[in-house]
Amino acid sequence: MSAVHTGWVDDGVAHELPGLQLAWVDADAPAEGRSPAWLRERLRGLADRYSGARAVTMRREPVPAAYRAFSRHVGLDPDVDRPPVEAVVVERLMHGGFRSRGRVEDALLVGALETGVPLWALDASRVDGPLGVRAARDGERLGEGELAPDLPPGRLVVADARRPLAILLGAVAEGDGPAPGARRLRVFAVRVAGVPAVHVEEALWASLEALQA
């Protein structure tokens, strides 16, 4: 298994949001983009665990509750801008199951649903050095293309040594996520106060297992 790395957090952000942490692992990208039958079946099994009442009450469980509290702390309404795992569970209720979106997305979803810890993936070739969390600066964009959206100064982002790569607990920049032909991935998780470190490691391992089995 790949080593789990701990990301940096800007001093000002760490002071304002104690307990915030970022962790990642690097791994080979899967050869096939489509999920194998066993992985699609695993998603169906997880969908059964998040049906009906469980989907409604999960927000009161310790890990989902921690992400809801974090959202409020950074000025978001978790009933409108739902934390990532809650959002996919609500989608499951609307569609009657978790829809397969390809090997990488399905592997990330497995890790998130098993632990409550959200996961994202980047094309490792697009990353310059360690990942960390900081506030966006004046004039920064989410992505490198001409149409990349502007980032409001102060918005929390996941960044490398050069630029923002994702909004914290949000979207990855266009062109920086896994794409056909990517050879290496960087899978990362965001930990907030109240979430045990072991949950983060378990989420990363579960996603890697689903990627590489």
Radius of gyration, taken over Cα atoms and rounded to an integer in Å? 17 Å
Low-confidence stretches: none
The separation of the N and C termini measures 12 Å
Strand fraction equals 15-25%
- Helical/strand content category: alpha+beta
Shape: globular
Order of helix and strand elements from N to C terminus:
EEHEHHHHHEEEEEH
Instruction: Outline the biggest β-sheet.
Output: 4 strands, antiparallel
Major beta sheet, strand line-up: 1-3-8-4
What's the mean pLDDT score?
93
| Count of beta strands | 8
Count of DSSP-assigned helices: 7
Q: Specify the helix fraction band.
A: 25-40%
Concise summary:
The chain is of the alpha+beta class and 213 residues long. Helix content is 37%, strand content 17%. The protein is built from 7 helices and 8 strands.
Describe this structure in words.
This protein has 213 residues and is of the alpha+beta class. Helices cover 37% and strands 17% of the residues. Strands 1-3-8-4 form a four-stranded antiparallel sheet, covered by helices on one side. A hairpin with a 4-residue loop joins β6 (156-159) and β7 (164-167). The longest helix is centred in the last third of the chain and has 16 residues, at 197-212. The model has no long low-confidence stretch (mean pLDDT 93).
